Amino acid sequence: MTITIVPALSYADPNAAVAFLEAAFGFEPGLSVTDSEGRVQHAELTYGNGRIMLGIADWADWAKSPKAVSGANTQCVHVEVGDVDKHCARARAAGAEILAEPTDQFYGHRTYRARDCEGHVWTFAQPVREVSPAEMEAATGLKVRERP
Predict the structure, then answer these.
(1) Are strands 50-56 and 77-80 parallel, antiparallel or unpaired?
(2) Alpha-carbon torsion (11, 2, 82, 140), positive or negative
(3) 24-53: buried (b, 16+ CB within 10 Å) or exposed (e) per residue?
(4) Do residues 134 and 146 make contact, with C-beta atoms less than 8 angstroms apart?
(5) In 1-85, at which residue ranges do the beta strands (DSSP E only) sit?
(6) Low-confidence spans in the chain with pLDDT less than 70
(7) What is the value of pTM for the model shown?
(8) CA end-to-end span of the chain, whole Å?
(9) What is the DSSP pairing of strand 121-127 with strand 109-115?
(10) What's the pLDDT at 146?
């Protein structure tokens, strides 16, 4: 059995979110479940071999868009992309708020962080070099341990 982890996000306006995620971040449309008025209740979008789900924020009392809670996030979706600088330029052009510009990280990835149309925070990364645990420890002063 293959195990897959699929993040699910809540949006006040899932139709707008689907359009934004496709335009800004390059997600591809997948399954869509709509009500009689065409309002998305549940959608699945893909990026490479990854997938996210999203739905309407008011389907349960614990499901909220960051927009409804002063921008608070309890998670950040991390996506690996082929060209992080090009991806960032696309996101910026489509209206994403860039929170951190593309920067090389101590662990060997080049990353940037963006906020979407309702306040969900996303990190996009591109692996750029292999880094050993010893190199990471030297760069951060923290203990780094690989698990088998």
Answers:
(1) unpaired
(2) positive
(3) bbbbeeeeeeeeeeeebeebbbebeeebbe
(4) no
(5) 8-11, 28-34, 40-47, 50-56, 77-80
(6) none
(7) 0.90
(8) 20
(9) antiparallel
(10) 85
pLDDT reported for residue 4: 84
Quick one: angle between helices 14-25 and 84-93, nearest 10? 140
Residue 52: the pLDDT is 97
- Name the strands in the sheet holding 121-127, side by side, starting at the edge strand that comes first in the sequence: 77-80, 121-127, 109-115, 97-104
pLDDT of residue 3: 76
Q: How far is Cα 5 from Cα 3, in angstroms, rounded to an integer? A: 7
Residue 88, CA distances (Å) to 56, 66, 99 in order: 27, 21, 11
* Under 8 Å between Cβ of 45 and 51: yes
Whole-number Cα distances in Å, 24 to 3, 16, 27, 117: 28, 12, 8, 10
Residue 2: the pLDDT is 77
For residue 51, which of 77, 15, 13, 75 has the smallest C-alpha distance?
77
Report d(CA 60, CA 10) in Å as an integer: 10
Cα separations in angstroms, 87 against 7, 22, 78, 98, 126: 20, 12, 13, 11, 10
Pairing between strand 40-47 and 28-34? antiparallel
